[in-house]
Every structure is written in C-alpha cells, then in structure tokens.
Amino acid sequence: MKTKVLILGAGPSGLAACLELNKAGIPFILVEKNQAVGGLSRTISFGGFKTDIGPHRFFSKNRYLYDLIADLLGEDWIKVNRFTRFHVRGRFLIYPVEIKDALKNVGFAYSVNILRDYFWERLKALPGRREPASFEEKIVSDFGRSLAELNMLNYTEKIWGLPCSSISPDWASQRIKDLSLVDVVKKMVFKDRNAPKTLVDQFYYPRYGSSMIYDAIMARIEKGNCGKIFLGCEPRKFYHDGKKITKVLCRGGDGEFEVEAEKVISTIPITELVNMLGLGVEHEAVKAAAKLIFRSHVSLFLSLDRPKVFSDQWIYFPDRKIPFGRIMEPGNFSADLCPPGKTSLLIEFFCWENDNVWNASREELVNAALPHLEKIFGLKKAEISGSFVHREKYAYPVYDVDYRSNLDPLKMHLAGYENLILAGRSGLFRYNNQDHALEMGILSARSVIDSKKYDIETVGAEKEYFEKGYTK
Fold it and tell me: Is 468 part of any domain?
C-alpha cells in the first residue's frame, strides 16, 4: 500500500504527528506494536482502578499544546497542586529541596556540611577550571558533596544502575539545568516567576489518566478520512537506496504487508531502526547502535482497601537498601482514578532487561516491597486487594559517558536518508517528557506539511522551557 507519510509508533510523538497531519488533510499510515496507544504515557485499568505507567504531569510553555489538549479534553483537563517528596535518612524531605525543610530534617551538623561543601565548591570554581567529565563531577561542583549525596547521586545510580562517575554530565544538563543551591534559596525568599522549571508548583492532568489525551486523538483521527491505524503491528524491515527509505515491511495479526511512503516518521527505538536497515554487523552505524543502551522499568501496581497512603503525587526513594525507586499514588493526581474510599500505588523498580528484577514474579515483587511499605507507611498485606506487574524494555535512554560518541555518528548516518524523520524519547535517544514528545511529533508533521526541516532535537533543551508550565 502507498501513503504520503508512514508513522512508526503510537506514543505521544507519533500520535501528535497523526493529529497534525489529519488536520492538514495529509494521508498517513500509523503502525503500533501494542494493542493500545499512548506508549510510555498510557493508562492501564485494573479492577476499577486506573494508573499511568509512571507519574506523568503536563508542564509546558507552549501555548499551542495547552490549547490543543484543552480542546481535546475540555473540563477533564484539570489543574493539580503538586506535592512531591523524597525519603532519605528515615525522613521525608520536600522535592525540590527547600532550605527550611532540609535544615529541619537533616539536622544541624549535616546542614553545616551542606553549606560548607557548597561554598567550598564555589571557591574552587575558578576561571580555567576544566569542564566536568561525569554527572558526579557536575553535581558535586554545582551543589557540594553533602547535598549531592543526600538525594541526587544515590537516586541517579538507582535509576541507571551505573556509578555516577560513569554517567555523562549531559544528564545533569538535561534534568537539572541551571538549578543550584542559590536557586533553592531564592525560591524560599523570593517568588521568582523566571525561576528554573523544576520549581513548578502546579500541573495539568487528564481526569481519567494520560490515555485520555491519546484516546481523544484516536477518536479525532477516526472521524477523518486521512489516516489508517494498525495496532498490534510493527515494522520488520526497511528497504532503501542509501539516500531514501523506499518501503517498509510491516507485520501484524493479519500477516505481513509493505508500505511505500514519501516520508517516514520514526518514534521506535533508534537501535531497532538501525538494525532493520540491513546494513550488516560491520557497518559503523550498527556498531555504534550496539553500544547504546536503554534502562528498563518494572511497575508493580497495588489496589488497596484504604482511602489514602500519602498526600504526594509521587515520592522518590534514593536509599539503596530500598529496592524500588519511586512510588506514585494515582488518586493524588485525580480522585477519579480510584473507586470511592479506595486508593492504589504504582511502585517503580528500575532494572535491566532480563535481570533478577525484570524476571521477578508478581509475588516476589510484592514480597520485596511490602516490608518497606509497612515500615514507612504502615501498609498491611491484608489491605492489598489486588496487584499486577507491567514491564517496559525501552524506558530510559542511558546517558553513559560514552553515549554521545556513539549516538552522534549513528544520527549522522540516519540523517543521510532524506525522507526519514526521528522523534520521541526512543526515536531520538533523548530523554524528554510527555509535553516535549508531543511537540516533537507536531514539528515532525509540520516538517512534512511545510516542506521545511524543523529542529526537533532542541525541543525542551533551553533552560527557560524546562519544567515550567505555561501561565494562563
């Protein structure tokens, strides 16, 4: 079959591209390997409960995105007061760090160490000092050793499964931007409208979970006559002449079929894409892709016979002795995600594909988590009415210290295919949030509509953009 645009993957980027093309009346075909849309941002239903795969809040300075989703969801696009903490040294501290809260909880001696280490790093930050070579060097330089070890270093190692000395400083630039101890003090003293986005206090959220956005997009597409959507279908092989993708072999429940498209928008993992080009194992792009790794993610969902566990949307657990890294309580995003008088928890384990955590049974994960849930929150096993496990292989692109030297030549090769557009977290091997992924999809479609190559790579990169919601 033939079409103007072939879109691979129905996550936020792929569906945003579909919606934009649909509005412009441009024919497209979308293929998605899962039977549901939304990718990492989709919502799962379980016994009258709903939960996203992880905590997804919406914060963007892009007015177009807000208007788009408000149009899709109407009154179901609700504003939520954010409350998030991290649990460390047996106590809960507000996240991002607030000085009064930290001083109260870590004690006088540790507080003195935080300030001492921070000002020592400022004294060391003399002109001519070399750039940090790792995440550890960057964070210690910006915050001082004591504050860095309170939360950022140990939690980062839990996420990535790597020592912070092996993680690229790009991860600090991506997630923390220019936030520093000075910014934290400013937030306490001044209400700065231009403060870094990690200090956002409110966010928007769909009343019945993130899938509402993507189900609404699907409904819009189905009302039109521009697009065909194939769920339970995935690309298997790319045909090309070295300069252009000529067709893509896809496989679904009804067998295989080929798609010829003028443009291909790919949001599938970049490593999978390269391996389907038939370049051969000795090709430099294939060898570079083999060195890029993704961190996997296992979610344990518990439905509970109690009205609430905590007041946070989510809590971080940097302590290495605690097996999980983060817990979200969906009911604190929207009360409509739980039956009346009940609540639920989504407990996140960061892992590698096929390691002990990835292969653990539901019972093993419950048994690993329960002692800590009981000690910290007083949760009893008898209060658990149900549970299930969800696994994601390609959860996080890993920014190890060598990732850039492998990613750059890979992208350089893929840029040689004039009709191929990469977008999304896995498609670009670039960590981003839901709103960034949506904007990438829109720009991908606009590149087709306007016959103009937009800079998708820089979406969400600027300091001002990062995690600072649009103010109406």
Answer: no
- How many Å apart are CA 285 and CA 279, to the nearest integer? 8
Q: Are strands 202-206 and 77-81 parallel, antiparallel or unpaired?
A: antiparallel
Helix (H, G, I), strand (E, B) or coil at 5: strand
90 and 144 within one domain: yes
Q: Is this structure's pTM higher than 0.85?
A: yes
CB 315 within 8 A of CB 326: yes
Residue 280 sits at φ, ψ, to 5 deg, of 95, 145
Q: Is the dihedral of CA 45, 50, 56, 57 positive or negative?
A: positive
Interval 253-282 mean pLDDT: 96
One domain, residues 88 and 191: yes
Residue 54 host element (H or E):
none
Cis peptide before 127 (omega within 30 of 0): no
CB proximity list for 128: less than 8 A, separation 6 or greater: none
Give every strand in the sheet of 384-397, ordered side by side.
91-94, 84-88, 314-316, 326-328, 343-351, 294-304, 384-397
What range defines the domain where residue 340 resides?
Answer: 294-397
Q: pLDDT class for 465, splitting at 50, 70, 90?
A: very low
Closest to 386 measured CA to CA, from 41, 43, 51: 51
Sign of dihedral through CA atoms 60, 65, 70, 73? negative
Residue 127 CB partners (closer than 8 Å, separation 6+): none
Q: Which long-range contacts (CB under 8 A, 24 or more apart) does 216-220 make?
A: 216/72, 216/73, 217/15, 217/16, 217/18, 217/19, 217/37, 217/72, 218/15, 218/37, 220/19, 220/22, 220/72
CATH number at residue 373: 3.90.660.20
If one counts the domains in the chain, the total is 3
**Exposure pattern of 171-203 as b/e (b: 16+ CB <10 Å)?**
bbbbbbbebbbebbeebeeeeeeebbbbbbeeb
Claim to verify: residue 273 and residue 299 sit in the same structural domain: no
The pLDDT tens digits for 368-386 are 999 999 999 999 999 999 9
**For the chain, what is the radius of gyration of the CA atoms?**
23
Residues 250, 318: one domain? Answer: no
> Is 211 among the domain residues?
yes
Of 39, 73, 68, 70, nearest to 56 by C-alpha is 39
Decide if pLDDT at 463 tops 80: no
